Write a sequence for this structure.
């Protein structure tokens, strides 16, 4: 009967999504439309890092606050949460609401954040693959919890990561986004701790947050977990898991530009014995936009089944489907400079995309996990993930430079399809050993990934048509007749890794973390008619040290390396070697008020060498050529997250950054050098605590982007201010209102590539929530 139910639920999840007929593809019509796949290095004169007195004060002010009806505890991660872990058996989960003591420093337990009503977390495996509390982790880690996402209606990946310390969201078009951290592009998105690098290092379409309990962001290099990538950050999306007590929720929201959204989330046991549980999440959203002719919509289905096959064996099967559709999608954004280098300005909703242009993305993600307890202290876990990621589009690109009279732009149109199929396997053994009278943590494992991509593309029959600025903004360019594929790219990427991680308990106050990852990466294929093949390998060591200064405060330091295979060609049509990065960090972390409030202050130094940098066209081949560049990033970060009182949540962070090339000149100047974010909510003690109010502010310093030979785009410092209010009508029903960009600030969402779109103006939504 258990097997029948498992097959039935998995089949149901699959049947709720329709098969994809085509997979995604991608075409960059010119270097102005899109940069190379690797993070390029752009240099401009800039200022040096200044002293950070304010940030020191920011980190030091928190311990002086008082906590109502609480007392500080020791340096273990004993934390109280109202949510039980999905891996517990029903006997350990007689109810969701009773408190459960979690010792994240001694048990591999990562409790979900839903129902904790908190803006902080209690344990993570980020960086080391060993479950540790925040202050036991010798790297900067931020977590966006389910509560914060619900409070501020952070439904998209772009909205979510805007609220993470040290992360910059560069949305340069309607449907493509770059994410930056510590001056480098974020290339690693993981799901439950495993994944492959982003295609082209950008996010195509959206990732909806309804499927996830929390988002963990490890800043700096992640050589042990991710093996390859940039020394920027790793974003880990932690999926919701089944509960062994029945629960259900439904959300209906209506917002600006006729945006409508429906969320359904149902979870509970699937058999009388309570050894099998399942969860189903479904979302539909559609509406218009502040951008002319742009109409996004999406459908999401996620199902997961968890079965306790024996008292020591847990099996999990899951599947998700996300379909994002965009009518009137932009490609290349608005030109921000004219031919004379003068900066241009438009209406906040301006677009040059005609209504026939579209950009659709689909993601199917299936995963299976088997966890076997080996005695009392060891565990073996194997995970397999199968991803089918695709997109297809018809695009219009405004090619050229605007003259003073509004001329100078010609049409470029294209269709493309892209299919990326991935297999990711990971298996590891983790446990504890006793040596020299102390207990230590060990993890050994291996991983394998295979990613195959193909993307045919073709052009329209009206390319090169001259258009005036008024015609472009009206979006009246007719849909051309598209021909057969004239360009084709195909590649196969295979990576194999072995890794080991350990945490050595040297004394009651000192712990040493040691680890290493050895990865072999190979890629072969055909890029626009040019065959290539490359093999690379590298070791990524990890060293971390934590020292408990007091029961609440821990000092730490860490160093790790990472490498990133590259497939760009130099001027001699030879492949560049892998880019190599290193990340060093030191700081102090604190845990206060029974670990309900976490603080951190860090200084960091990041370096990346041999990065592919645009060197113009190879005149013999007509293809882009690249040279190797180096960049160094250093700065300071501070963060506070959690509960100041039982009714007061806060998540705040600040970053001061300096990024330079080997010549000492500033690079990546479209990344703000100073950022600050603060989100807070307060449950008003009157009205029986039924009223919650909150606000969020995000500030960044001035930015600029120099377009070589044309001019410089500049944007001054700005702040976005949001508000929320929620009223709990009763224990099952609540009403939430959200107001975004309350000051109606007009600013670009990105300056990258000297093209862009404006961020959304003043907007709001009302959300009705029912929970059982």
């Amino acid at each position: 009967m258990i097997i029948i139910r498992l097959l039935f639920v998995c089949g149901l999840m699959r049947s709720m999504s329709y098969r994809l007929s085509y997979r995604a593809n991608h075409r960059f019509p010119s270097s102005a439309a899109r940069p190379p796949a690797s993070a390029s290095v752009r240099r401009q004169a800039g200022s040096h890092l200044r002293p950070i007195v304010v940030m020191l004060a920011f980190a030091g002010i928190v311990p002086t606050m008082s906590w109502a009806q609480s007392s500080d505890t020791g340096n273990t991660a004993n934390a109280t949460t109202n949510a039980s872990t999905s891996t517990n058996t029903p006997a350990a989960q007689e109810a969701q609401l009773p408190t459960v003591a979690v010792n994240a420093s001694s048990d591999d337990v990562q409790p979900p954040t839903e129902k904790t009503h908190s803006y902080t977390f209690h344990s993570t495996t980020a960086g080391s693959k060993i479950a540790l509390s925040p202050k036991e982790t010798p790297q900067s880690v931020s977590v966006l919890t389910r509560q914060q996402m619900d409070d501020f209606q952070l439904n998209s990946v772009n909205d979510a990561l805007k609220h993470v310390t040290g992360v910059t969201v560069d949305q340069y078009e309607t449907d493509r986004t770059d994410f930056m951290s510590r001056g480098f592009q974020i290339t690693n998105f993981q799901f439950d701790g495993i994944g492959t690098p982003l295609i082209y290092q950008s996010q195509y379409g959206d990732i909806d947050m309804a499927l996830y309990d929390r988002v963990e962001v490890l800043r700096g290099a992640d050589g042990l977990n991710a093996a390859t990538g940039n020394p920027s950050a790793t974003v880990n999306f932690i999926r919701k898991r089944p509960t062994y007590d029945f629960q259900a929720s439904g959300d209906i929201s209506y917002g600006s530009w006729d945006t409508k959204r429906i969320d359904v989330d149902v979870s509970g046991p699937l058999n009388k014995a309570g050894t099998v549980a399942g969860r189903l999440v479904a979302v539909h959203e559609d509406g218009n936009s502040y951008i002319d002719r742009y109409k996004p919509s999406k459908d999401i289905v996620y199902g997961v089944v968890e079965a306790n096959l024996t008292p020591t064996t847990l099996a999990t099967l899951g599947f998700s489907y996300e379909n994002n559709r965009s009518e009137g999608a932009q490609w290349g954004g608005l030109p921000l400079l004219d031919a004379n280098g003068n900066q241009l300005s438009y209406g906040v909703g301006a677009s040059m995309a005609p209504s026939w242009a579209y950009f659709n993305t689909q993601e199917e993600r299936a995963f299976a996990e088997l966890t076997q307890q080996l005695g009392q202290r060891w565990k073996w876990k194997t995970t397999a993930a199968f991803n089918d990621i695709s997109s297809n589009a018809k695009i219009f690109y405004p090619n050229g430079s605007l003259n003073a009279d509004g001329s100078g732009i010609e049409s470029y149109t294209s269709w493309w399809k892209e299919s990326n199929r991935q297999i990711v396997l990971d298996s590891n053994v983790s446990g504890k050993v006793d040596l020299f009278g102390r207990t230590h943590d060990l993890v050994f494992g291996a991983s394998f990934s295979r990613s195959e991509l193909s993307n045919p593309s073709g052009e329209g029959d009206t390319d090169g048509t001259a258009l005036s600025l008024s015609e472009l903004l009206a979006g009246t360019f007719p849909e051309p007749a598209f021909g057969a594929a004239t360009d084709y790219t195909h590649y196969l990427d295979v990576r194999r890794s072995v890794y080991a991680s350990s945490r050595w308990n040297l004394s009651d106050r000192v712990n040493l973390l040691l680890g290493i990852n050895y990865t072999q990466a190979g890629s072969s294929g055909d890029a626009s008619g040019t065959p290539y093949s490359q093999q690379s390998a590298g070791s990524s060591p990890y060293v971390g040290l934590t020292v408990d200064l007091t029961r609440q405060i821990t000092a730490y330091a860490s160093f790790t390396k990472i490498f990133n295979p590259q497939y760009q060609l130099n001027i001699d049509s030879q492949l560049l070697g892998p880019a190599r990065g290193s990340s060093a960090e030191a700081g102090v972390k604190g845990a206060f008020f029974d670990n309900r409030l976490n603080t951190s202050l860090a200084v960091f130094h990041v370096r990346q060498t041999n990065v592919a940098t645009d060197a113009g066209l190879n005149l013999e081949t007509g293809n882009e050529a690249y040279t190797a560049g180096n960049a160094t990033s250093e700065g300071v970060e501070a963060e506070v997250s959690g509960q100041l009182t039982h009714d007061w949540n806060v998540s705040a962070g600040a970053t001061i950054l300096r990024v330079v090339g080997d010549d000492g000149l500033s690079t990546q100047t479209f990344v703000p050098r100073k950022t600050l974010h603060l989100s807070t909510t307060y449950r008003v003690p009157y009205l029986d605590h039924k009223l919650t109010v909150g606000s969020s502010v995000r500030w960044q310093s001035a930015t600029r982007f120099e377009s070589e030979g044309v001019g410089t785009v500049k944007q001054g410092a700005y702040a976005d201010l949001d508000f929320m209010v929620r009223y709990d009508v009763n224990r099952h029903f609540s009403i939430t209102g959200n107001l975004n960009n309350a000051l109606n600030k007009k600013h670009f969402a990105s300056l990258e590539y000297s093209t862009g779109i404006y961020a959304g103006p003043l907007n709001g939504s009302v959300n009705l929530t029912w929970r059982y």
Q: What stands out?
A: The chain has one domain: 2-22+78-365+378-414+428-477+489-771.
